Protein: Aminotransferase class I/II-fold pyridoxal phosphate-dependent enzyme
Amino acid sequence: MQTYADMTKEQLQEELTKVRQIYKEYQDKGLKLDMSRGKPSSGQLDLGMGLLNAVDAESLMQAENGLDTRNYGGLDGIPEAKRLMAGIMEVRPEQVIVCGNSSLNTMYDMVARGMLLGYLGQTPWCKLDKVKFLCPVPGYDRHFAVTEHFGVEMINVPMTEEGPDMDMVEKLVAEDDAIKGIWCVPKYSNPQGVIYSDETVRRMAALKPAAKDFRIFWDNAYAVHHLYGAEKGKILNILDECEKAGNPDMVFEFCSTSKISFAGGGIAAIAASEANLADIKKSLTIQTIGFDKVNQLRHVRFFKDADGIAKHMEKHAEFLRPRFELVLETLESQLSGLGAGSWIKPMGGYFITYETNEGCAKRVVALAKEAGVVLTPAGAPFPYGKDPKDSVIRIAPSYPTMEDLKAAAEIFCVCVKVATLEKMLE
Ligand code: PLP
Structure:
């Protein structure tokens, strides 16, 4: 395939006329397709239906410590659910509080606690003039929405193939005590699918922040969401690394079963040091008398343990893998070698990131919309929705049927070609 960069102006114009014709043919079909939603397909959700029978009217409702799961009590979760969630994060059960149905909710609460109460006796952030967070980009839009909501200033840190640019992170946190946190999705990052290298995790754990109450928000949302087996997705244990580096209190780790059992109907958890857990419990005990332990019991009875979760996630992978591969094969066959952008093949998680040439992402998303394909808005994976290069597009292959996905991926490629050629001919 001839690279666009090697074409003359006339050839580019000719090519644009050709791809515009193809684009128009797709447009005339009046399709309605959606590649914007990073949520499980109904086929994946069917895999979890056994959860609904895991506890029924005949079941023993006692947890293994004798606690009646139907009643109040057990603020930090039933012991067997702590073990299950610890298994997902590969931490010790005593490092875990099992929370409600959403890890995002738990993260929101942790930022709110920093704001209103302060961590471990430090000044609440709301009393400070300025509070800042580091935001590896591209990243998860809802993380950025939480910090924006609380008026936290967000600083972009570029992602590399090994995680956030650690030279920049180290320098910034050491210099500025207004920087109170960093958002991290360490495994199969949203949206690029990056797996943090051992060096990145070690450097993160060994940070020397100017702020005593600086925290790493370690959102291990895709801890067990492998497409090609667990081996490829191994990362170091951040709690252990922080302990080794003399920073035991510097991290909060989060996870949930939202994309394991039911999205919004699962269980979430936080893992942290003993001191942090005690601090969290001081306000948690005011906030709630306890979370839904019946749901915790249901999850334990259905999944049993970390092995049970791993087996279940293999079934999810069987659904997801062909969808990812279909999109990647389409990108490869349509766009490879054109000089119209790049992408990385993710080993797990929920997204593929396409990076267009500078200044083309918004145009691609708009063209796709006009041809009936909804994509995540360009800019969404950046704080304040602003992609400085206007080049990142998040593709979510999990939800559409294979047939819809095929059409959507093909249309996407045509839109990339049109937008790239238009830009080159400006
Ligand atoms: N964290 C990341 C990185 C996500 O991608 C998502 C959902 O897409 C969530 C958290 C949401 O998790 P939960 O449903 O547990 O709130």
